[in-house]
Amino acid sequence: MSTPSAKVLIVVAALAAVAVIVPNTNSFMILLTTRALAFSILVMSVDILLGYTGLASLGQAAYLAVGAYVTAVLTTKYQFGLGWDFWLVLLFGILLGAGLASVFGLLAIRATGVYFLMITLALGQCVWGLAYRWNSLTGGDNGINLRQRPKFGINLADEVTFFYLVLGVFAVSLLIMFTLVRSPFGRSLVGIREREQRMKILGYNTWLHKYLAFIIAGAFGGLAGVLWAHTAGIVSPVNVELPTSVDALLMAVLGGSGTLVGGVIGTFIVFFLREWLSTVVPWWQYVLGGVYVLTILYLPTGLMGVPQRLRHASFRAIANGRRN
Amino acid sequence: MDIRFWLIQAFNGISYGALLFLVGSGLSLIFGVMRIVNLSHGSYFLLGGYVALSVIWATGSWLLAIPVAMLVIGFIGLVMERVFLRPLGFDPLRQVLLTVGFAILFQQAALDIWTGNNFDISPPVALSKSIVIGDIYFPVYRIFMIATATVIGVGLWLAMEKTRIGAAVRATVDDAQMARGVGIDTSRISMLIFTLGALLAALGGVIGGAFLGIYPGLDFEMLPLAFAVVIIGGMGSLGGAAIGALLVGLADNFGKALYPEVSYFTLYAPMALILAVKPTGLFGRE
Amino acid sequence: MTSTLLRRLSPPLLASSMVLGLNLAASAEELRIGFVAPTTGIFAQVGKDMVDGFAMYLDEKMNKFGSADVKFIVEDEQAKPDTAVTKAKKLILQDKVHILVGGLLASSGYALAPVSTAEKVLYILPVSAADDLTQRDLPKYPYIIRTGWSSSQPSHPFGQWACEQGYKKIVAIGADYAFGYEVIGGFQRAFEACGGKIIQKIWPPIGTKDFGPYIPTIKADADAIFSLMVGPMSLQFPKQLAASGNKKPVLGGGTSYDEFVLPSMGDEVIGHVSALQYSAALETPKNEAFVKAYRAKFGKVPSYYSETNYTTADMIDQVIQKYNGKFPGAEEFIRQLVAMKFDTLRGPVSFDDMRNPVQNIYIKKVEKQKMFGYPNAELWNTVIKTYPNVSQFGQFKKAEFLATPVYSRDYPPCKYCQ
Question: Which fold has domain B3-277?
Fold first, then answer.
């Protein structure tokens, strides 16, 4: 029986395993894992909106971009964020992500379903246009190059050290989001997802709840952006283009929305397909598309739902067996 | 800014709107009837263009390319609806994501089949000229696009308003459950509309292909434009789609001509603002 | 009978072949070249052309540069800078390549250059043309060298050519991004230095296909139009310009008419003039052989994307042979490369002290004709004038040039814009 605490144990064990195993593989694996972990934070934020609040957003990459660009600009123009002030930059990323979400949320939260999808898409594209056009700040399509990683006691230029940092931030983010979704606030979000009308009748300010969830997602998006900027060392409008937002949404669904960890699994699968499989075979796009289609068709609850479905299938088999 | 400028820009804006209508009308119908946001709509557009290219290369006939492309893509749409979308039932998010998955597959397949070179569809010479009125040149092809969009628009409107099937479609758009209640086979209607949407997208691809080119990436470039039309016009409303297309075409054109600084925002900023004020689009109803 | 003979002979045969084999192995070095290009996504065809160009050279030399066995590893950057970085790191750290080659867009070049500095690996840029990589930013990147071009390099002599044609006022319209700014900026600087005036600059966003908003705003008193278009924009702009009744001469940047897009263009581009360091219509025996072989193998006329990679492979080959096939380390390789003069497909190429090529710039005009013995009349970029020994600074002095800002939307300022 998978009780919540058993699930928690599994996650902790997985994290520990990653922390121990990955640094002993090759540098490419470490790099991929670091990237996947950083992006997972964004995907988990998408899941908070999608899986818990029932809002599918096609514009979350905007918050990743905001966090990434602020990191890049501070590092290159003001030499800020390369020492202990890196933690301040992390904070800025969170605040800016939340700030942008608070503005966009005012425009978007009234919409639901597919309209919400569209307005978040439009807002995300506006941010993209800004990143592209505001040459003096963002470097336009050339992007901004962060040529160094922060050094504060530990040197993040070392891939393994940086990996541990990202893993640590990821673990803390996961913990915070986990606490959030199990809190009364999180439960009311689920209630809103299921039956918004009823929640309203019960006196909940559903608009406010959704708005807050949106801001929280934006905050984590900004956080992911700060890490993302340092992982690749370059920030460009590609980070905020539509396919990036679509990616995040797809990864959340692939792994299983409403589970947080599902988003992480989805991220890892897609990243490895895209960046490892692409070094092995040229037809990896078919595999990726196929994985999406098959998962959506046959695994509506995503990959995280597989154990449950297996259990149900085995129960049915046992029941049928007994009957015979 | 003299009168010449306004005339030309208005003409350009209207012709661009016509193209957008060709792209967006199918999407609007699909959403109205099935409540599906078809994110592979752009792929149908592009594939329509590629199939047309193949027909032109094989037979040299642009005229033949149009119906062949429409039928092939219509068929693909039909298969996709029957085999993949129908089993999902009414689950908008999963349907949306399924169409994205297919868009990825289509994109790679197109690359493998037709290569990634930038192509252009050459219309017949008659359509490539320009009519000169006064000293203003009006490219015939733009006039052709306006004419086609008008014909399609009127044809669709007539079908919706004056035929029994049209009435059934309208009933389904208004209230699917009620429609089923009076005996309308909404499942068949969905299939019909999805196929029709694919047909229209393919037509848009063939007609638009001569204007925009046919190349990888066009599928995802057209998608936001189609959505802008649908959103501003209101989903499921053909008249709304027409007006939405016209508005987007004119606003985008004049915006870029008069204020080039905001070229990137002439499409998305109005879209976001309209949705913020009226989440179901200008003419939408919910 | 023979079998017993064979059996008796095999041990000594085996032994001697092993010895010989060992010796052979000892003298054959392995040269590992990592190639980063977009092989999927919207730039997949360009990436393919890049790889094909390089691979064709490798095939001709049977994968051997002198006595070195070349291991050619291609990785997909999907035209995304962070993917480019990831793949480059994989090539460097996991595959342990000696040389990193490639990158398509300026953003990829800017993403990979720091990686080369951090990992101290040689990075050769055959395509990425962002000016500052070998100008104001060069000191940050001691391990890079460009074998292609810089964006504004062809524009400098082209501006001069425009003056020689008697043009006085030109309207510039180009894609709204750094590459556009640099190509047009270089043209503006050169054209205005010899008495011309750029009277208007229009910047359609990259990806624009409907130039309806822009074409009517082109000033009527211009003598000519200079356009910088890339990809699908290159196909649609001339068509729409012609349909609008344009009678002015049209000049363009290299990518506006290069062989990547030329086959899909129609008669509306006949007479349009552009400038680049290569044209497939270059009438030299070397180029003719290359074009014919490439077209026979890949079914299309080679674009500069293919040529520059073929030439880069050629250059690497010639340098490595000076070291008997053993890679001498990044710094020594660069030192040698920069010291040599090459006779390549595009003509003579040498390097300036900022690691950018010094080469011919060809002014080419689109003409419909039969070339190289092909049966049909097709569109070709016929070379009408050659400017030899053009560096990235062109006719300008390096120190003055570097003292001014990099070409951007607002630099050079549009003094004559009304």
Answer: ABC transporter involved in vitamin B12 uptake, BtuC (1.10.3470)
